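writing this on my phone so excuse typos. first protein, seq and then structure
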Amino acid sequence: MTPIDNDDNTGAGEGEELRAGRRRAARYVVPVAVMGVAAATIGLVPALADSGDPDLPKITAEQLIEKIAESDVQQMSGTVRISTDLGLPDLGGLESGLMSGMSGGPGFGGDGEGSAADPSAKLTELVSGSHTLRVAADGPDRQKLSLLENAAEYSLIHNGKDVWGYDSKSNEVYHSSASAGAERPEKDVPATPKDFADQALEAIDDTTSVTVGGTAQVAGRDAYRLVVEPRQDGSTVGAITVAVDAETGTPLKFTLTPASGGAAVVDAGFTKVSFAKPDASTFDFTPPKGAKVTEGDGTDQATEHGRKAEGDLAEEMDGLKATDGLKVVGEGWNAIATFDTGARGGLPMATAGGDLGGFLGSFGDQVKGDFGSGTVFKTRLVNALITDDGKVYAGAVTKDALVKAADAAR
């Protein structure tokens, strides 16, 4: 790995010039926001092998952050490899259903409610496994993301005022309207290295170390490595590395490694990329003949060949009200999100077929403290404590940090 410049560690006593640069790039550089990662902890198995360490001019961390912030790439296309290694137990597919429910997704189509093409449900599949995406963009009004599956494809297209989701497996279409100049829909679910970088690199403060860790070549492009690490103890995050295109400043690869070591939790990167203008036809879409079309413009009513079907998603959103009182305690990498479910007596997940709470509890660690007792559910990145009196504490922090937060809130 070619050394670049590691003399610019961002310590608490360094000058205002670096701090100003950090603020100007605030929306690009932060420790992983706890709930953002919890909701979208989409990771990738390390799918890309760097093909060399190019010899590039030296650059400081501040200059590289500025390069990302000033990047104004409007047109691009390429292929992204994405996968996740959270270390979750195998629940036989149950985890995917739970994540879809947590997202507020309207269902999976078929004879049930909602649409298999709704992006709020479909894109949650990225939280586990390995995936290949094709992406294209032509300014703020035209973007396309396609999730390639076994003998099937899911596409999300934003073209002017229209947003289309199409699931070829079920032959279902989801349609809604976007305001002029809107960014790619469903931005809450990161799918490209830039999406990950935007979420993970929003702000730099004295809890963070930022350095340039050499160079790389990603998708045939020369790049610098920006390395972001927590200075605080108690975080489950080891380091975040962003490979930044040396010419355009575009993030080409995002890797998040856990403090516990081992394989990356998140590793998203381009295998192919072009900054040429995509063909206009890339963003054209007409619902295929016979497809079920669900309109998402306020009425959320399904239509098939112009005929409306009954259905309302409002009731399905009621479950999200439990998070109305969400608060964040702590700061920087040790931020912990907490809310009260209002439930008492442990995990509030009884089902008609049995006690789901008891089943999930078998995967957790029982803990006690001044707060009482509860269960900690652990992944390689995000951990959550659910107390027996219904309170939830979640963050990219250790089990001990969660117990300490619960004790402090007693």
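second protein below, same order as before
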Amino acid sequence: MTQPPQGFGPPVPQYGQQYGPQYGQQNSQTYGVTPPPPPHPPTVQGPEFVAVDTRNAIAVDAEGVTLDMNGVQAEFPWPEIRSVHYRASPNGKALMLGVIHLDGHFYEAVVDAKPKARLTEWFAQLAWVLRHYRPMG
């Protein structure tokens, strides 16, 4: 292959030679500013359920189920969960949610619903979120 005359066509690449500074490098050298780190890959987003009272909390999201009981957290990723069950407390004023781990252990959290009508809202939202992550086949 013949080379075009000097000044015609794109420049011929010189292998092993770096062309100019990398993105952000010029600013950091010129102005003493460190370029920001590259953005993290986006996390998987999906519906979430959160119920909180003054001592306890329950969260259900794309990662799994988290129970917080008096400041002690237990996290259960979906692959480690055999099943999730929920119901109203005997007095009808709290949400009781239980997680059965693959090894058969049962974990439960109770979150007070104030006002009491909030329990109905939680049941509707929780049912929808659980169906999203654990569809009945």
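Residues 3 and 12 are 9 Å apart (CA to CA). thats all i got for now
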